[in-house]
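Hi W., the 2-phosphoglycolic acid complex you wanted:
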Amino acid sequence: MSKLFVANWKSNKTLEEVRQWMDDFKVELNDDQEIVIAPPYPFLSLVADKIKDLPGVSLAVQNLSSFPAGSYTGEVCVRNLEGLGVKYAIVGHSERRRYLKESHQDVANKVSQALNNGITPIVCIDQDYMEDQAQLIESDLLSQCVVAYEPLVAIGTGENAPVKEVAKVVKEIKEVFGEVPVLYGGSVSPDNVILYLEITDGVLVGGASLDVGVFAELIKSN
Ligand code: PGA
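Structure:
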């Protein structure tokens, strides 16, 4: 499988900044690399349009409604995404668990919504609730997930996790979820990305994806 480089922009960027980022994004990818851009919802359509002729570049959402289409004001469900070419959905990011009080059950419902509608969920977990989270996901869906190991202490802190520790958790994740692709996220930078690519199937990048030059450097360090 290709190495995934997921750019999670979180709640950053204006329309103009997104246009600029996309215009400046000129990276030659190897065959075994896949870039996944996860912009805020209002920019999905713009990014979808800009990447449509770029092989190896895919689109993700940063979240997904746990409900189907219907009377759920403010939610964005799978049906709303039809026609945009969204391939992945990040679900259960620790910031959503923390600030939006997302429960393991909410995340499990999002996994079902995604997979039942042709979108691959990237399930974010920390080590201490990995098993509790997995238990609530329908068993036949578990092995269809991509899992991102994101230790809380490493997110946005510059304190990227020790590689040995990540390797250990990657093994545990595969024991619980099956032979799924596992990503690492938490202060990934052009300086440390290579270490994680040796032991994972890719990286989930926050801060270092905001500047297109830094993100391109990170991809090239592979
Ligand atoms: P960071 O964020 O790269 O800024 O640490 C990663 C994430 O939250 O997915």
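The mean pLDDT is 97.

W.
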